[in-house]
Amino acid sequence: MTTVLGNSDLLWLVLALLSGGLVAGFLAGLLGIGGGGVLVPVLFETFGLLQVPESVRMQMVLGTSFAIIVPTALQSFRSHLARGAVDTTVLRRLGPYVVAGVIAGVGLVSLVSGAALKWVWIVCGGLLAIKMMLGREDWRFADDVPNNWVVRLVAFVVGMISTLMSIGGGMFLVTLFTLCGWSILKAVATSSGFGPLIAIPGLIGYAWAGWGNPDLPPFSLGFISLLGAAIVIPASVLTAPLGVRVAHGLPRRKLEVAFALFLTAVAVRLLISTL
Q: What is the mean pLDDT of residues 54-62?
């Protein structure tokens, strides 16, 4: 890193990363979102304090977030699968299109600037916040998930945008599945299965896209901070099963509103840093 921090600064940074990991794991299980919506702002502020160069800061945030999402997403999916709540037929049907979208997203990451990635988060995060604030579980466009080109195209776009935002795709897929007539619990559980399909190739892609970049801080593997991942991963894996248990037992509306407000705050923060 390019700055020297005192012991108290390091302590606060470690506590921030641990807290972000605990919350991210819980939300991965609760909402099927993979945790990136929490990790991105935590890592953005942390890497700012560590004076990671602006030319790679957002890329490092997103790549490191994916490194943390992989075990969290796997743990969340295993927990939902054990409860028999995952529709594996839809998972197998749409999985290849989601992965294709991830590959396209990785290609874009290697071409666009950190500022462009911020704008993706600002726009998509803001739209998701509006949907979560206003959405209702009784809105329906179909009685089940159709097997047509429109849904396959949506799956591709979800994979691509999720890669640019470093999220597990659940924020988009839960919306798609509930609009197609699924219960919120089935939507969350099945969405958790797409998390690993997005996070694993996304992780490999960010490592590749940043390989050999001269602005990378120490202990980096491409656009991935190994130190940040090592601190956050154990905390996120620990709380993912707790989020699953809560998802299977409590109403979610107030939590959705709270998360919508959180997304709004993140989008505003990134907008301020961009302008």
A: 90
